From TrEMBL:
Major localization class: nucleus
InterPro entries with a match to the protein in the record: EOBI/EOBII-like_plant, Homeodomain-like_sf, Myb_dom, SANT/Myb
Coiled coil: none
Name of this chain's protein: Uncharacterized protein
Superkingdom of the organism of origin: Eukaryota
DNA sequence: AAATCCACCAACCGCAAAGGA
DNA sequence: CTCCTTTGCGGTTGGTGGATT
């Protein structure tokens, strides 16, 4: 208790302490923080030394305000990872987890309880739309691949049947609604189905974008975690 | 001019995982 | 395998300075 308080200094770091810590790290490198305290002649515990170095003294730190681009990344990654600040910080070179955590708390924590301001809403929607479109594209590709595989299989099967029975190959006929669409000059088959499902989905998603207007930005993140 | 509010930032604390003896 | 130390992470607190009332 009292012994520790006498031994370890607390509170804001002085310029001299910073100098000692920087000098020590430049000579011996990072790590072994507990011994840094004594070796560098500092009356700080290892934890305090590490924190000071990581959050303030490291030479590769980026100073200045968080840029709009960085903010977008933070929003995106927070939606994906939740409060995993160190994970988020790894995607923002020069920024510390502490910095990002502080930024989030001052800028977005409150807004998650109340409604988001318009620009943030817009950003969130854009991000989600982008993500959704990416997923759709992947699904399209998968479907196309599946259809391709089925078509290949059918071709092989009919070829086998043909060669077995020596029967003439009959191309598939266009029937029903497909026929109507074909005659109307509309696209048909897989691409049409995809297009209609896409437009329907967008209608649905336009509604979903608004979920955040009600629940705030943490809604999905909280569900994810 | 004084009081209050708010945003920002640095630092501390507790906990858990990792690593070594 | 267990215990102990070190390290890293996330939550929280406290100080400061500018803006607002």
């Amino acid at each position: 208790m009292g012994g520790n308080e006498e031994r370890w200094r607390k509170g804001p770091w002085t310029a001299e302490e910073d100098r000692l810590l920087m000098h020590h790290v430049s000579l011996h490198g990072e790590g072994r923080w507990n011994s840094v305290a004594t070796l560098a002649g500092l009356r700080r515990n290892g934890k305090s030394c590490r924190l000071r170095w990581v959050n303030y003294l490291r030479p590769d730190l980026k100073r200045g305000r968080i840029t709009p681009h960085e903010e977008t990344i933070i929003l995106d990654l927070h939606a994906r990872w939740g409060n995993r600040w160190s994970t988020i910080a790894r995607s923002l070179p020069g920024r510390t987890d502490n910095e990002i955590k502080n930024y989030w708390r001052t800028h977005f924590k409150k807004k998650s309880k109340v409604a988001l301001d318009e620009s943030a809403k817009l950003k969130m929607r854009q991000l989600k739309r982008q993500k959704f479109q990416q997923e759709q594209r992947q699904q399209q590709l998968q479907q196309l691949q599946m259809q391709q595989n089925i078509a290949d299989m059918k071709r092989i099967m009919s070829f086998l049947e043909e060669s077995e029975n020596q029967v003439e190959y009959m191309p598939p006929t266009v029937v029903g609604k497909q026929k109507d669409r074909a005659s109307n000059g509309c696209c048909y088959g897989s691409s049409y189905a995809l297009e209609t499902s896409m437009s329907e989905d967008f209608g649905m998603w336009d509604g979903l974008w608004n979920l955040d207007d009600v629940h705030g930005p943490n809604f999905h993140a909280a569900k994810a975690s």
